[in-house]
Structures are given as structure tokens and as C-alpha cells.
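Incident log, structure service

09:12 report received: a user says their structure output differs between two submissions of the same chain.
09:20 pulled the input from the user's history:
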Amino acid sequence: MKVSISSPAKINLHLKILDKNSDGYHNLDTSFQFIDLYDFMTFEQAKDGILIDTNNSSLNAKENTIYKAAVSLQELSKKNYGAKITIQKNIPIGAGLGGGSSNAATTIMVLNKIWGLNLNQDQMINIGRTIGADVPFFINCKNAFASGIGDIFQEKKSDISKYIIIDPKIFNSTQKMFSDYEESKKNKNELLENDQNSFWGIFLKSNKEVEDFYRKNSKKHQIYLSGSGSSMFIKYNNEAEKEKILKIIPSNWRFFLAKPLQYSPLREFV
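09:34 re-ran on a clean worker, output below:
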């Protein structure tokens, strides 16, 4: 059996850090929106072992979320199922767009089908929690307001905007961003306040080029930060607005034109 599927990105329309749990995770208030930016994945059943073939050499086969997800299902089934997984990476890594979490969710949902494990959505979400805080959202397959550590969902209507996703080509470790956030609170550092995303202040403080871009353009354009960064996005409604925004993006950065998705393409595997 061979399955080819698009593994979608997400943006956070807002993200507020509320407090920290005793287990080290943070409680959040956020809004997840699927967008039409994808990694492309193909799964084939194999006799044994997990083989990952990718166009991105930075994906270490034993460290990435795809491998962890596949091994988690192997261990749960207590059978030595195998798979060959091919992934074409398009979603920037470490950019707050959920690419790694989406890939893990895709792996769980597709292997559940081709290995005949018959896990229900709640069971798959519980596996996803062990891999990353955003994985349950991708398995849930619906745009949502989220609380808890980002894994308690209230379905919401899709946004209707168009977006320019701005990638400054900076790798942001989510773990480090949370650590820096706690450090800034402890030291009572004065950082730029922005109601859209709690990470804005520390992100700008540690990235001078992005800070210059933000301060130069934020009065004319509402600039949003997705997740813990580094990707930003600006909404637009027409071609004239789009052209104005494209002109402010530094030439050494990347950008993607994106639209909201009403639902995830993974929902066929629920």
C-alpha cells in the first residue's frame, strides 16, 4: 500500500503565554489556523525498519519527529512493522509554522491506516502529545482556539484573510524561546509589548535585523508572529496591498503567499 499526502503548515493568529505548569510546560491561549503551505509525504509499507528519504539534509533520521512518531506506533503495536517514508520539505524548519509537528501527525495518522492499527483520533492525539505540544492540533484536523499546553481545542471558523508569510531564515528553538521568556520575566526585562504574541519582545531583542524591519514597518502594516517565531505574516485583501507588502521584505529573506484552509487534508485519516 502506498499513500501520498500533503502535510500542512499552521499559523498562530495570536499566542499568549499564561503561566507555567509544575511539569515545565506552559499554559497557552492561542488560535491555530491551517494554511496552504505544505510538505509532501509518501508512505509505503516495508517488511521492517523505518527508512526516511528527504530532500533536506538537516533532518537527522533518528532525531526528527517523523522517525519518533513511527517508532512510537511500532512500540504501541508490539510488532516490527516497517515503512519507507519520503518527504519533500517546503515548510521552513524552526520557523513557528508547525512543520515538524505536522509531519509527526501525518506519520501517525497514515501509518495507523496502512499498518491496520485501528487507533481512534483520541488515541492518536495521546501519542502525538508525547512527541510535541502542537502535534495534537494537527491530528485534530480542525482550526481551533486552544488552551492547556495548546492541546485543548474549541473549534473555530476559518480565517478569511490572505497572508504573506515572511521567513527571515532564522532557526528558532521553541524550547529556547520559552527558556528566554522565563529568564526575561525573572529579570523583569523591559521588552516590546505586543498583545498578538508573547514571544515578540524576546524575538526582536535577539534579532537586530528583524527588530529594524519591525520598527520600520509596524506602523503601516499589522505584522504578526507565528508560534515562537521566526516566521512572521501580514494579512492582505487585494493585489495592491500585496505589492506594497512585498516591497518591504528584505531581499535576503524568503516569503510565501498563503491562504487559509477550511480543514486539514489529513482529516480523511481520522
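09:41 both user submissions now match this output. Likely a transient worker issue. Closing.
09:42 reviewer note: Residues 162-258 form a domain with the Alpha-Beta Plaits fold (CATH 3.30.70.890). The CA atoms of residues 162 and 237 lie 6 Å apart.
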